[in-house]
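Lab notebook, design round three. We kept the backbone fixed and only want residue identities now. Task for the bench partner: fill in a sequence for the structure below.
Input structure tokens:
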């Protein structure tokens, strides 16, 4: 399999672009765009969106307890399980604010994946399922 190597200017690390990683990045971009469209459809405040779009990255603080704990805490916040559960809760109980938070969270994860940031391994912050 052919891999292209490029330098990620944000983190100054080598990233292998394989057909699978490109597919996962495209999937993330589509999920991010769909979540932003869903948020727009809900008609909620864009100030709230701006205030919360980076909130899932606060889970990086788990790395203060070490790489294994950090990866587990970070991954908990960066899977679609939590925003999907929030979305179901918001839909089931007619809670528009909860639906909006779910859309923001899903948008964050999708955009992260589109940029090549994936779930972390217990070995350290830089190793992901996309690299």
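Proposed sequence:
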């Amino acid at each position: 399999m052919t891999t292209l190597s490029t330098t990620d200017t944000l983190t100054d690390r080598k990233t292998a672009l394989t057909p699978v990683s490109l597919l996962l990045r495209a999937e993330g971009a589509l999920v991010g765009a769909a979540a932003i469209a869903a948020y727009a459809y809900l008609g909620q405040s864009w100030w709230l969106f701006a205030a919360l779009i980076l909130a899932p990255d606060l889970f990086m603080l788990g790395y203060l307890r070490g790489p294994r704990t950090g990866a587990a805490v970070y991954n908990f916040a960066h899977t679609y399980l939590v925003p999907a559960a929030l979305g179901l809760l918001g839909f089931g109980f007619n809670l528009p604010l909860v639906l909006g938070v779910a859309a923001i969270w899903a948008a964050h994860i999708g955009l992260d994946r589109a940029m090549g940031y994936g779930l972390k391994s217990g070995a350290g912050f830089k190793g992901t399922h996309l690299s």
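Keep this in mind before ordering anything: Residues 19-42 form the longest helix (24 residues).
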